């Protein structure tokens, strides 16, 4: 069922179309922790937008990382759910960085249709030094290395992995570079992380994490309109004259509009995803599609951990057995602790 929510902007009546499957009288906004696909047909653009509230607060709160690490991991989570919810099959999408910076590993798993888990590894001493020097931007914390984006459709299908270099760039820049390099799709990405304070009953305030993000892509019917300037080190003949490049006007407009988003606006619960999309594209007309909910949900289980341990060599298992004859494993993603008797794994 399609219904049109008509909002009035400064220039007059503009239409914001919401593709919605709910019954009449049940219309509502997606709210937090739900990715909203959208289309701006007049500009040949499609994308996805999200605001994360309780989900990301729960996930980051469990780990209790230093604030710079939490902010960096939150950006990675937003990026992963924006990309992962576009999967049209049952499977897993994983984004992972491996770098030489103070935060040398970020891993975010998205399992269809909605499960998210995340983990960060960092050097506490190097992180303290970076914080003292005021170097806590994503570029500073990550340093140089790679980001791998992996699509796993299950044991019967071949995995696909795309790798992009991290060389002093933000996660927004890296994601845009990935789509430009691997998919040849003009893409713009915005990510934002914030802390908000809510007044509690009885006085005082409680801080909680929020995050938001938007990805927009240029997908015209004519592929030649997607042409982009060659990347440094591309396949142009050495010594060839540089070809003058003019970006498509529609894509230039999309990028200009997305660039107007303020970080606070992107994560502000009083704005919301649909209202943000209206603010950006109301003069061109924007259509929002049914949202996909996402949740903090680790895929670990006692049986899966036991299967992993069963693949250890006898020497590795012997080293894992503690003095009381038990093997203890803690999931790095969710912190769940598992305890096994040695014979449960070895069968002896």
Automatic annotation (TrEMBL):
- Top-level division of the source organism's lineage: Bacteria
Methyltransferase keyword on record: no
Q: Does the keyword Mitochondrion apply?
A: no
Instruction: Enumerate the CDD domains for this protein.
Output: Hsp33
- Keyword terms: Chaperone, Cytoplasm, Disulfide bond, Redox-active center, Zinc
NCBIfam families noted in UniProt: PRK01402.1
Question: What's the name of the protein?
Answer: Molecular chaperone Hsp33
Task: Name the source organism.
Answer: Aureimonas altamirensis DSM 21988
